[in-house]
Amino acid sequence: MTSVRTRTRMIERLRAQGISNENILTIMGQIPRHAFVDEALAHKAYDDFSLPIGFAQTISQPYIVARMSELLYAVPKHNKVLEIGTGCGYQTAILAKIFKTVHTIERIAGLVRNTRDRLNTLGVHNARLRHADGSKGLPELAPFDAIIITAAAPIVPEHLMDQLSIGGRLVFPVGDADQELRMIERLDEGFTETRLEKVKFVPLLPGIS
Ligand code: SAH
Predict the structure, then answer these.
(1) Any residues with Cβ below 6 Å from ligand 1, and which?
(2) Secondary structure (DSSP) of 147-199
(3) Most buried in the list 35, 134, 163, 185, measured by CB within 10 Å?
(4) Single pTM value for the model
(5) pLDDT tens across 151-209, in order?
(6) Could you tell me if residue 209 is inside a domain?
C-alpha cells in the first residue's frame, strides 16, 4: 500500500503533470508521505489529493507541493528558507533537503508539537519550528533566499518582499474562494510578480491557537 511502487507511481504522475526538476522528483521519491498523515489514510498518501492532518487543516496535494518546491529550487542561494504554515511538515521536509536551514512557523500548538516529533523521528534536523502567527514573516532573521506560504493570504503580502534576499522568491496562494498561486521575485532593483495557476488552500489566519 505504502510501497515503493506507490511512491514511484506518484513520481510518474508528477512528471506527467509537468514537474520537470529531477532533483525535486528525487526528493519527493525519498520522503515517505504516508508518515505525515493519519495511519487510517496512509493508503491514500500518494494519490493526488489534499488530505486532513487534524485541527481542520490539510496537507496539500503532491502536485502543488512539487510545483511550489520547483519554483523555490530555482533561486540562486540555498541557504535559508522561511515557510509560513508548517502543518504536518511534509513541505518542510522537502525544503530541508533543498535549503541548509528551514525556519517554519505554525499557529496551531498541537501541530507544532506533533510535527516537531515527526521530523525528529524522520531525521530532519535542519528545520527550526516556531509556534507563532507567521503572517508578518520573521524580520529578525531576514533576508531569506526563499519564502513560501502554504495557506492563502486574502491580499498579496507585500510586507514580506523586504524579507527576501536578491534573487529570492516568495511563493504564495492569494484569494479566498477563488485562489491563485503567485510568485514575487526580488531583482537587483525592484521586484517582479508572476501569476500562476488556480489553487485551493486553507486560509492564512491571524493569531495563535
Ligand atoms: N505545508 C503544510 C500545509 C499545511 S496547511 C503541510 O505540508 O502540511 C496550512 C497551515 O498553515 C495550517 O497548518 C495552518 O494552521 C497554518 N497557518 C494558517 N495561518 C497561519 C499563520 N498566520 N501563521 C502560521 N501558520 C498558519
Answers:
(1) 53, 57-60, 84-85, 87-88, 90-91, 105-108, 111, 133-135, 150-151, 202, 204-205
(2) EEE-SBBSS--GGGGGGEEEEEEEEEEE-SSSEEEEEEEE-SSSEEEEEEEEE
(3) 134
(4) 0.97
(5) 999 999 999 999 999 999 999 999 999 999 999 999 999 999 999 999 999 999 999 99
(6) no
